[in-house]
Design a protein that fits this description.
about 210 residues, Arc Repressor Mutant, subunit A, single chain, 12 helices, Tetracycline Repressor, domain 2
């Protein structure tokens, strides 16, 4: 158990363990048996929890399947909430992503790759992922808007966040297509390469 978990109350540690067991088991079952062939009852039976407990941790079958996405972006939003509001915003958002990726648990990139590969063959997960991406984009904008001064340009703010999200999606899709080559370091390198291409991309001729 990590030192970070040890400082939490027992009830919170148990909740985190249950949440982790549900997401890890769901990913394994969905990969081995197929997403549509695996029911929530199957998942709860394997983890030995009630469906009531499941719904205290996840909203839906799609939600638990994409748990590593929500883990990443929940941590990212916490990081953004503490951003120093100076310098180019896009640089700050990129730096926050680097910090968040570095801090994810050692097994996160394996689970993220498996989730992306699973999602490619499941339309319901693709749709849920797109919806979650929109929700996350809105949450980032709201977080930044709440910390900015009264003179914030909301059009520029939203455009910056949209560009940031598009760069992340481009990098992560490339990493997935490469079979997760290089692990976490490979993903981080592709993220940096993608952000470096943004100035040229924005002025690319038709």
């Amino acid at each position: 158990m990590s030192d970070d978990l040890r400082v939490l109350p027992l009830r919170e540690r148990k909740k985190l363990r249950t949440r982790g067991a549900l997401s890890e088991t769901a990913l394994r079952l969905f990969t081995e048996r197929g997403y549509d062939a695996t029911t929530l009852d199957d998942l709860c039976d394997v983890v030995e929890v009630s469906k009531r407990t499941f719904f205290r941790n996840y909203r839906s079958k799609e939600d638990v399947a994409l748990a590593c996405d929500s883990d990443l972006w929940s941590s990212y939003l916490d990081c953004v909430a503490t951003l120093e509001m100076t310098g180019p915003l896009l640089d700050a958002l990129r730096a926050a992503l680097h910090t968040t990726l570095t801090a994810m648990d050692p097994d996160w990139d394996r689970r993220f790759l498996a989730t992306r590969e699973l999602s490619e063959g499941v339309p319901a997960l693709q749709a849920h992922s797109l919806g979650y991406c929109q929700d996350t984009t809105r949450a980032i904008v709201e977080t930044l808007n709440g910390r900015a001064g009264e003179d914030v340009n909301e059009v520029r703010l939203r455009l910056t966040v949209e560009i940031f999200v598009a760069a992340w999606r481009t990098a992560s899709l490339r990493w997935t297509a490469l079979g997760g080559d290089g692990g976490r370091d490979g993903l981080t390198e592709l993220v940096e390469e993608t952000f470096a291409e943004l100035p040229a991309a924005l002025t690319s001729p038709a």
